[in-house]
Amino acid sequence: MTTPTDATRDTVRAYHHARFRGDAPAAARTLAETFRFRSPLTASDDADGHLAGLDMFVSIVERVDLISELYAEDRATLVYDVHTTIPTVGVQHTAEHFRLSEARITDIHLIFDAGPWHAVMRAIPQP
């Protein structure tokens, strides 16, 4: 028997794995129609905006070490280290908090030290 917490875990894990594989369509399938994303560097009120830079992000990720997973019926938190190829960033210690409704992610709040990313963001050509 699947519990609500199992459904939350399955959805969040599917999103996390798809995101770090660079599989935007699979990640998008875990997101609710009404979705919001916030981080120290960017925010989006829809899945397309959130996943738009995924290819570029994944291209600088060497690996991700999952440290902790916490699940409840309508929320989850992952704590992990993102090992990047950018020397000034190095390992990014990250916490990601999710809110869910009906086994779909409605809100993600990503928490990390944005300081090392400011120079990187300035170097990226803006459309």
Detailed description of the structure:
With 127 residues, the protein is of the alpha+beta class. The protein has five helices and six strands; from the N terminus they run H-H-E-E-H-H-E-E-E-E-H. The longest helix has 18 residues, at 4-21. The N and C termini lie far apart (49 Å). The relative contact order is 0.20.
Summarize the topology:
Blueprint: H1 4-21, H2 24-29, E1 31-38, E2 43-44, H3 47-51, H4 54-59, E3 61-71, E4 75-84, E5 91-101, E6 104-111, H5 117-123
Parallel strand pairs: 1-6
Antiparallel strand pairs: 1-2, 3-4, 4-5, 5-6
Show unreliable segments.
Answer: none
Q: What's the N-to-C terminus distance?
A: 49 Å
How much of the sequence lies in strands comes to: 35-45%
- Basic shape: globular
Which properties best describe this structure?
globular; alpha+beta
Outline of the structure:
The chain has five helices and six strands. With 127 residues, the protein is of the alpha+beta class.
